[in-house]
Design goal:
The protein is of the alpha+beta class and 213 residues long. Helix content is 35%, strand content 24%. The chain has eight helices and nine strands. The strands form two sheets. It has a seven-stranded mixed β-sheet, with helices on both faces.
Length: 213
């Protein structure tokens, strides 16, 4: 892989199973990551807790798509430790302008309270990062994102590294070879993140398989 990060290099990296990171927001250098184990959400196996279900059904929020992509990336980077530097921020925003990256945002009273963003290619969604400013903001975003991916033709939902937070929602680790097999298959298929036929309600999202207590 080339060292300079461009949209073309970024897409090729994802297709080869790697992704870029920086040591920190003020570090100009980029390095590529190719973990031995990869975190993924098996499509159709999102775990819905009773508490999250109740919060989703309250309907005291609004779901938007890529209405504030730059704000979502900035919010994800607004941590004491982050791998998102200016180069990464700029490239992903450029990807979003071309419809190659999307954010799913949760708004409450015109305030952005949670969101997630990632890159699309074929039937693969490469989840990059998420944030939450209010309780369960990112969980609500992930629930809606997972439902959208499942019902618009996606076959791979990559989350790179899993955390206890993601594990509680159904994310698992798979080996590098398993990931590359799934990636290869997903890249040969088509999905439409913005499918105009897709419709969803809070009730649809709340009725997920694999519910937990």
């Amino acid at each position: 892989m080339e060292s300079a990060l461009t949209k073309e290099v970024l897409r090729q990296g994802y297709r080869e199973g790697i992704f870029p990171m920086s040591e920190g927001r003020d570090d100009p250098e980029i390095f590529w990551v190719n973990p031995m184990e990869r975190g993924v959400f098996p499509i159709g196996r999102f775990h819905m807790s009773r508490s999250l279900r109740r919060r989703i059904l309250k309907l005291d929020y609004e779901v938007r798509l890529s209405s504030a992509f730059d704000e979502v990336v900035a919010a994800c980077a607004a941590r004491s430790e982050t791998w998102i530097n200016k180069t990464i921020y700029d490239i992903y925003c450029q990807m979003a302008e071309q419809g190659l990256a999307h954010s799913l945002e949760i708004w409450r009273q015109q305030r952005l309270i949670g969101g997630v963003y990632g890159v699309v290619d074929g039937a693969a969604f490469f989840g990059e990062s998420m944030f939450s400013r209010e309780t369960d903001g990112s969980k609500i975003a992930l629930a809606y994102l997972h439902h959208r991916l499942e019902h618009t033709g996606f076959k791979l939902f990559d989350v790179q590294f899993i955390t206890p937070h993601l594990t509680s929602l159904g994310a698992i680790n798979i080996t590098r070879s398993q990931y590359l097999d799934q990636l290869k298959q997903a890249l040969t298929q088509k999905a439409d993140f913005l499918d105009p036929q897709y419709r969803v309600s809070a009730y649809d999202v709340a009725q997920r398989r694999g519910q937990t207590s």
